[in-house]
Design a protein that fits this description.
By secondary structure, the chain is an alpha/beta fold. Helix content is 35%, strand content 13%. It contains 10 helices and 8 strands. Strands 1-2-3-4-5-6-7-8 form an 8-stranded parallel barrel. Strand 3, helix 3 and strand 4 form a beta-alpha-beta unit. The mean pLDDT is 92.
């Protein structure tokens, strides 16, 4: 299945639309079991996601392909960056209780341009040769970050990027096609724009209401097609065959059931031109 289970909520409070806080371990257990039964085979986590890795390891996730992310390394005080990365990964594997990772992502591409850049790259390649990780990846907030990176030299196999009906920068820049041509997996996150796209307009936080016309246009599209905002968001991203995975997080098993039903239903062609959308709206780093 194209769906990957995002796990940030398992380790910390996350998301504009999240009213329940960190997911309880009993509910995480239900989610993991249901995900496996429904054919979801990938988990997305990070060393910096609070208790997420430890919680996953306590439940047991051997049936899943796991992608995790390094913490930012630019300001690291490590005397030896290779040993520091190796220590991070060994600790991550121990918390997750797995022998290897499907993918390890560099969380901040700035790390590649800092004083440890070359050492970070060589360390990741070494981990890959040893079989501790199977794919090297990067997490980006903007396709502009890709301009300064030699994907071939770095042996990048995965690019994780925001992608949703408002944020199409990866596609509009031409990078989605280029990554597809290079057989690099694209893992789309922020499919719901951290929950903003599935909130009723009267529930949207005040600081986002200067873009009210955009949200009204989006909700009109949903109403005209007689579908839920969740289905609209998922349909838009999943119908793109250049997207390898959709990373979606859940607060409870009922949400996961809803999404599974949507994936099993006939896909709708959901599209609308919002023009150039203000980056202050689509980039959570600027919130």
């Amino acid at each position: 299945m194209k769906l990957a289970l995002g796990t940030v909520q398992f380790g910390m409070n996350y998301g504009v639309a999240n009213e329940s806080g960190q997911v309880k371990i009993s509910e995480v257990t239900k989610l993991i079991r249901m995900a496996s039964e429904c054919g979801i085979d990938m988990l997305d986590t990070a060393i910096s996601y609070g208790d997420s890795e430890r919680v996953l390891g306590s439940i047991g996730i051997n049936k899943f392909n796991v992608v995790t992310k390094l913490p930012a390394l630019s300001n690291s005080s490590c005397a030896n960056i290779e040993n520091c990365i190796k220590s991070h990964i060994e600790s991550s594997l121990a918390r997750l209780k797995v022998d290897s990772l499907y993918g390890l992502l560099i969380y901040k591409t700035d790390d590649l341009h800092g004083k440890y850049g070359k050492e970070i790259v060589e360390s990741l390649k070494s981990l890959k040769r040893k079989g501790l990780i199977h794919r090297i990846g990067i997490s980006i907030y903007s396709p502009k970050e890709l301009e300064a990176i030699d994907l071939k030299e770095l042996e990048i196999n995965i690019v994780q990027s925001p992608f949703n009906i408002l944020d199409r920068r990866l596609e509009q820049s031409g990078w989605l096609q280029r990554l597809h041509n290079q057989k690099i997996e694209v893992h789309a996150r922020s499919v719901f724009l951290q929950g903003l796209l599935i909130l009723p307009i009267d529930k949207i936080p005040e600081k986002f209401l200067k873009w009210r016309l955009i949200f009204e246009k989006w909700h009109k599209l949903i109403l005209d097609n007689n579908i839920s905002p969740v289905r609209g968001c998922l349909n838009f991203v999943s119908q793109n065959n250049k997207i390898s995975r959709l990373i979606v997080g859940f607060d409870n098993s009922f949400q996961l059931q809803e999404v599974i039903k949507i994936f099993n239903n006939k896909k709708l062609d959901i599209n609308i031109d919002f023009g150039d959308v203000d980056e202050e709206l689509i980039n959570p780093m600027l919130w």
